[in-house]
Amino acid sequence: MEMKRLLVSFVLLWLATVAAAAPFAILKSLGRGHRMKSLYEFEDGSGFVADLEVIQHTDTYGPDVGALRIIARYNADEQMHVHITDSSSSRWEVPRDLLPRPSALETSLQAQSSPQRQLQLSYTAEPFGFAVTRIATGETLFNSTPPAHPSEEAAFNSMVFKEQYLEISTQLPRNNSLFGIGESTRPDGLRLTRGRTYTLWATDMAAYTVDVDLYGAYPFYMDVREGGATHGVLLLNSNGMDIYVGQDLLTYRVIGGVLDFYFFAGPTPLAVIDQYTKLVGRPAPMPYWSLGFHQCRWGYDNIDDLKDVVESYKKANIPLDTIWNDIDYMEACKDFTLDPIRYDEKKVRNFVKELHANGQQYVLILDPGISVAYKDYITLERGLKENIFLKNEFGNNYLAQVWPGPVYFPDFLHPKADSWWTTEVRDFFNKVPFDGLWIDMNEASNFCSGNQCSFTPESLTVFANKSDSSNNECVLQCVEGASRFDDPPYKIDHVGKYSSIGDKTIAMTVKHWNGVLEYDAHNLYGLSESIVTQKALTTVTQKRPFVLSRSTFVGSGAHTAHWTGDNKATWEDLKYSVASIINSGMFGVPMVGADICGFAGNTTEELCSRWMQMGAFYPFSRNHNAIGTIPQEPYIWESVAESSRKALGLRYRLLPHLYTLMFEAARSGAPIARALFFSFPEDHNTLAIDHQFLLGSSVMVSPVVAPGHTTVDAYFPKGTWYNLFDFTKITSTGEKHTLAAPADTINVHVHEGQILPMQESRLTSAEVKSTPFTLIVAFGESSYATASGKLFVDNGVDQEMEVRDGSSTFVQYFAERSSYAGSLVGRVISGDYALAQGLVLQNIKLLGVSHSPNFVTVNNNRISSPKHLNYDKKPSCLEISGLNVTVGRDFEINWHADGLRLASQ
Ligand SMILES: *[C@@H]1O[C@H](CO)[C@@H](O)[C@H](O)[C@H]1NC(C)=O
Ligand SMILES: *[C@@H]1O[C@H](CO)[C@@H](O)[C@H](O)[C@H]1NC(C)=O
Ligand SMILES: *[C@@H]1O[C@H](CO)[C@@H](O)[C@H](O)[C@H]1NC(C)=O
Ligand SMILES: *[C@@H]1O[C@H](CO)[C@@H](O)[C@H](O)[C@H]1NC(C)=O
């Protein structure tokens, strides 16, 4: 939920507009950069270490760090690492226990001089600058050396390295496309906008506030050059920063830490994400059930509300896997408690038991703030005993205020936080056997600002009653700090400079374990809580954990899913959600969704219907809204129920495909929901497609994103596409097509070349799991065509998600066809799980088969009964049914239209 900043957000929008319009005017006397004093090249040819000194000291933004050391090295054939820091004393860096990685010096390339090496590094000695070049094309990808002929657009400074201000720029070509850098809501679509500053500072700012820094921080971008060659750049730094994306330069302005760059050679978008997630952590596999549909709201007042909702879904015949509780379940908003009246423990236990018996799940919210307002609160007592709370600059537990009133924040960097949090999770799990945890408000959100706060017993009466949206006024007495951390010399463009970086969050001078300053670690709070929560869940449940976090950072995907935060029930937010979920996938957090039908504000029937249709294809599909808004469960309106049944029906049939995509994500980082250019990078038009997306490489979702429409203009990259509802065909040379989209319909197509595993729709994913499989084989139109696909299945809850004997099944499918004949084979890499479960492939739909076959064999046995064969000329579809093929065994199916002709070929 949000910190109701509705009123100020209009002011903010205005301020942001004004700020965006003002050019960078403050770039005065930042010196003349650095000169190289000494240079040592590694003997293995993998890079160099050099010492740099500042050429001319300046005072702007504080004193320079006089002496720097740069280590530049190939980490791998496709990855280059450039690390620049103070050579005489250590500076803050993202801790290795949060984000494990080799240090610049530890890295050593195996091969002396690898012929596979894709990038090349060069430098200038004075002023110092470095450049990264793609060897294959000679193209410069990053170049921090000021251009010989600077444009008038913005000053291009040589590198600046001060105590609290780092600046470095790269030259950019004007006609490349940049993606990434988050988290923010982007009305302009996916592509980064030239001339705009992107600010990174984890903030509880509602996601409907566009073009400002939101909950997460990702200093990572992808650069698609002309022709489609793509590379990635990560600045691994957790401090606040502005990234200015200009016409012909990109400038980082960072208020601490070090310059720690990783360059990923790609050259495809998927390869970039593979290389990036290899470094920062592969996405965590999520339980199979989490791909089912989720219902949540803030304002389910009591356990009977939840029961009603689950019942109503069933009555309306709409799939539902998981029911959620927001803070309503807690007693006085305290973590790990149940309201004794509204959420009676026994009733809740029975309810969860029933859910589990029906193959459904229960997920609960937790906020990081631990209430200090009540006696005998065991979670607080144990936290105090372990001394794991954040400390203010005077060494006392740091007091803040969130939903339960006054709170202490756990320090998730503290070595004992782990065991303390696990104990709390275990104790509560023993009361309520929940299936996953939702960690909210972890930017961290604070209703007060200040480094030293206190409260009186009177101020507490405000919190005696159940939470509602009005109790987020600060009632603590706080002193705001004025140190160089509270008020750093360079002010990032935090929420359009409306607020200072310590506003409504943990004060900048607060200390984490080992003296780490909140100023440095702020953007890591959500990541550190995700890590500890994922571990606790794993320990307690002994199953694959499901964690959903609002605040995220580079590497969060290895621990958590994400939702895009507090959007609003508007057509704009429906539309913008596409870019938001695609971006999360690019950041390495592929399990992502937006609140379906909108969180804040009242939704409408038409909006909710279209949103259920689109949201049915978010990787993480959850309907959620705020307290005080009208109910928006899909069964509330018959039209929404109808479109939900239709869209979720397809989602549930696609579960084997979605689960296989999750498997691929865990192996290679490949996003589940992708931009069109991921599959068609050579098609320039795809770079500007903002309101369609792909699930995997070739299932394309083309939603209606505006009111009053019964058609949608959708872009179709080159090739043949089949509608997954009725198998009608579109053949495109790369253009827009106008598709019928009546109220109950969303357009979902599969591209030629794909074999899609599907199952039958049911009301829960658990029921889908044992239904017969269908393979959709999509052939193109040429006289010879091929298709391929994959299927991964396991029990959906084991901690590992791997191809291994005994507990999973992985099958690869290949198909080819000529004019009159064709074949489809399944090759089983590991088959045990499917065999043990008796999973069966019953149907095959061959799309793009232009002649009715008269001879079909399954594993060399001719199918003689015509009832198993159905040829439909209109979509040129051959359907083979009643196959009885075991999913865990190799098989081969052949067909031909004329046996003699084939034999004589
Ligand atoms: C893109 O920029 C490059 C170099 O600036 C130039 O050679 C090329 O012609 C440009 N292409 C287009 C389509 O503008
Ligand atoms: C709590 O709310 C009830 C009803 O709204 C009110 O009568 C009562 O005084 C409130 N208690 C406190 C301590 O504010
Ligand atoms: C939403 O609808 C309810 C009930 O009609 C109304 O009380 C409330 O003011 C509405 N909220 C907004 C933001 O329009
Ligand atoms: C599959 O098994 C059923 C029942 O045993 C049988 O009727 C059907 O003909 C079989 N299908 C094929 C293709 O052999």
Total of helices: 15
Name the CATH class of one domain: Mainly Beta
| C-alpha-based Rg, rounded | 28 Å
Query: Judging by the overall fold, what is the CATH architecture of one domain?
Result: Sandwich
Which molecules are bound besides the chains? 2-acetamido-2-deoxy-beta-D-glucopyranose
CATH superfamily of one domain: glycosyl hydrolase (family 31)
Helix content: 10-25%
Query: How confident overall, as mean pLDDT?
Result: 93
Q: Approximately how much beta-strand content do the residues carry?
A: 25-35%
Strand order of the largest sheet: 1-2-3-4-16-13-12-10
Low confidence ranges: 1-27, 900-905
CATH-derived topology of one domain? Immunoglobulin-like
The number of strands is 49
By helix and strand content, what is the structural category? alpha+beta
Separation of termini? 67 Å
Largest sheet: 8 strands, antiparallel
Q: What coarse outline follows from CA principal-axis ratios?
A: globular
